[in-house]
Design goal:
The chain is of the alpha+beta class. It is 45% helix and 13% strand.
């Protein structure tokens, strides 16, 4: 009787699971059919959004390999209105079939996320990164050098150098910090690790070699091993004091967190629907920011106006020593040299951010010029509006593929062979600057590495008390005698 009930329960559970899957596919569409719709889907993207780039590849068995998408509005906005700066990153997709989302995002003139291109691939491999960058290179019409901020993994490091000649690759500071902590050996406490991370960040942001080396000496005093690791990590690719590219003080590749959240929200949808959800989000983002910028009356975008005003306030207390040439001396807490014609200050703030530093503003005021004339054009309201000038158009329903001529061979795309394993998938978490896990701290003895229930301090105290009691007892006994 029990066996029959068990079989009945299992059958009911099975039917419920199958029914749920069927209902879900009826509501959202079949995952398998979505892969098979990729050829017509890519055609529709380029048909409805002329100038866009959409392509896919399959493996020898016709199973899905990778898909690349970049809309014309995104390409135009990046090339005409954004800094030549791209952030490369990836997240695992939590769909029915295993996959990874690659993305290249830019920063608009108000330091907002601007998606440029993305891809869905079967796995994060060196070969897939190389393919993604090849497609990105083909989609872009610009030939000017681009600064990339990305992880320093081999596939990215070699592919960026091979495909984008003359471009710079700034290593993501977040990934570097995580690797530093992983590679460190020895029982370092949370506090010691935190101090090393602080010194490492200070070294990365240090504008000049002398301040960079001071930070390294601080790391060396804590751990010679960490010091050697930093020296061997190619500081010319991540330290402001030596990096030749233009990052505008953006040091991490997870700048596109907003974009990745869109993909995470649509992870359960079939691939074509997920891509269309992302398209819709980019379309809405463009509309909102375009409408907002129409009300701006300032020469620079709001965030850049605020930054410039802060430097302007600092400049009021500085002393400028005038010169007949283009070089000036500015005195305050330090003595800095400014070459106004070269947009150069010895503090390096002007060069690193694209906005005049307080020393430059002091000189600009003395010669009767406006600081706005010395700001990067990418921070102007005009450039911001150009960034969002082009529109992304909707894509019609493709549930019914267009009938092809009999002479055309239909392209078959099947799902990738690897399905998602059971259980909750792991995901990258962005936004946290805390890269060191906090150790347990005991509420009794305030020590680290254990909690109150496993604290040995109590045992030590009890043992000490017992010894004292024995000594007192012996003392009393001797006194009595």
């Amino acid at each position: 009787m029990t066996s029959n009930r068990s079989m009945e329960f299992n059958l009911t559970t099975f039917r419920h699971g199958v029914g749920k899957r069927i209902a879900k596919e009826q509501l959202q569409g079949s995952y398998k059919e979505a892969y098979n719709q990729l050829p017509i889907f890519c055609e529709k993207i380029m048909e409805t959004n002329p100038g866009s780039f959409a392509t896919f590849t399959t493996k020898d068995d016709s199973s899905f390999h990778r898909l690349f998408v970049s809309f014309h509005a995104s390409l135009y906005g990046f090339e005409q209105g954004c800094r030549p700066l791209l952030f490369l990153d990836s997240i695992p997709l939590k769909s029915k079939y295993q996959g990874t989302l690659f993305a290249a995002t830019a920063a608009d003139g108000d330091d907002g996320v601007f998606p440029v291109a993305f891809a869905v691939v079967d796995a994060e491999t060196d070969d897939n990164w190389h393919w993604f960058l090849l497609q990105l290179k083909s989609a872009l019409s610009t030939s000017c050098p681009i600064t990339f901020v990305a992880d320093r993994q081999k596939g990215l490091r070699e592919s960026i150098a091979d495909i984008f000649h003359g471009s710079s690759h700034g290593y993501c500071l977040r990934y570097l910090t995580e690797q530093l902590i992983r590679d460190l050996k020895g029982p370092f406490s949370h506090e010691v690790k935190r101090l090393m991370v602080e010194d490492f960040y200070s070294a990365a942001y240090a504008p000049r070699p002398e301040s960079f080396h001071r930070c390294l000496e601080s790391i060396k005093s804590i751990s010679p091993e960490a010091y050697n690791w930093v020296i061997q990590s190619e500081p010319m690719n991540w330290a402001n004091a030596f990096f030749q590219g233009a990052r505008y003080n953006h040091m991490t590749s997870n700048f596109g967190e907003l974009f990745y959240s869109w993909a995470s929200d649509a992870h359960e949808l079939p691939i074509t629907q997920m891509v269309d959800v992302i398209r819709g989000k980019i379309m809405e983002l463009g509309y909102t920011r375009r409408a907002d910028s129409n009300h701006w009356l300032t020469r620079l975008t709001p965030s850049m106006e605020e930054k410039l005003e802060k430097e302007n306030q600092k400049a009021r207390s500085l002393q400028v020593l005038l010169s007949a040439g283009s070089t000036f001396e500015v005195r305050g807490d330090s003595i800095e040299v400014i070459d106004i014609d070269q947009w150069d200050c010895s503090c390096k703030g002007w060069q690193l951010t694209g906005l005049p530093c307080c020393h430059a503003i002091a000189v600009i005021g003395c010669i009767g010029r406006s600081p706005y004339d010395y700001c990067s054009r990418y921070f102007t309201t005009e450039s911001y509006r150009i960034t969002y000038a082009e529109l992304i158009h909707p894509i019609p329903n493709i549930d019914r593929p267009v009938q092809k001529d009999s002479s055309q061979v239909a392209v078959i795309v099947t799902p990738p062979p690897t399905r998602r394993p059971p259980g909750r998938p792991t995901t990258k978490r962005f936004g946290s600057q805390e890269v060191v896990k906090r150790q347990l701290q005991c509420s009794r003895c305030k020590g680290v590495g254990h909690n109150k229930s496993t604290c040995k301090e109590l045992l030590r105290v009890l043992d000490t008390d017992c010894i004292k009691e024995q000594e007192m007892s012996q003392s009393v006994h001797l006194t009595t005698l």
